[in-house]
Design goal:
- This protein is mainly alpha-helical.
- It has four helices and no strands.
- It is 62% helix and 0% strand.
Length: 98
């Protein structure tokens, strides 16, 4: 219906493969190495460039700690509003705080 389907020959598949290391060395083609030092060096950033990332990490850490501190307070209020028993609330607190 869509034409005759034939399987590719070994020569067709062999011609499409990537060269092995031996073939690459025989053809004198080598991959170029990339130096990671040229991209960025953490010791080479200035204080002015590091202010934004440090401030962002500090703010996120503060927000994470603040939210983590609210868990115990919210647990008590949820116990009252949702009718959660003290043992269930203790289980939730143990799950939160480890």
């Amino acid at each position: 219906m869509f034409g005759k389907k034939t399987e590719p020959t070994f020569e067709d598949i062999h011609g499409q493969r990537r060269p092995s290391v031996v073939d690459a060395l025989d053809n004198q083609t080598r991959r170029k190495s990339i130096s990671d030092k040229a991209v960025t060096g953490a010791s080479q950033i200035t204080t002015r460039q590091s202010i934004v990332p440090v401030a962002l990490v500090t703010i996120l850490f503060f927000l994470w700690g603040f939210a983590y501190g609210l868990l115990d307070v919210l647990n008590k209020h949820f116990q009252e509003v949702l009718g959660v028993s003290k043992s269930q609330g203790s289980g939730l607190a143990a799950a939160y705080f480890g």
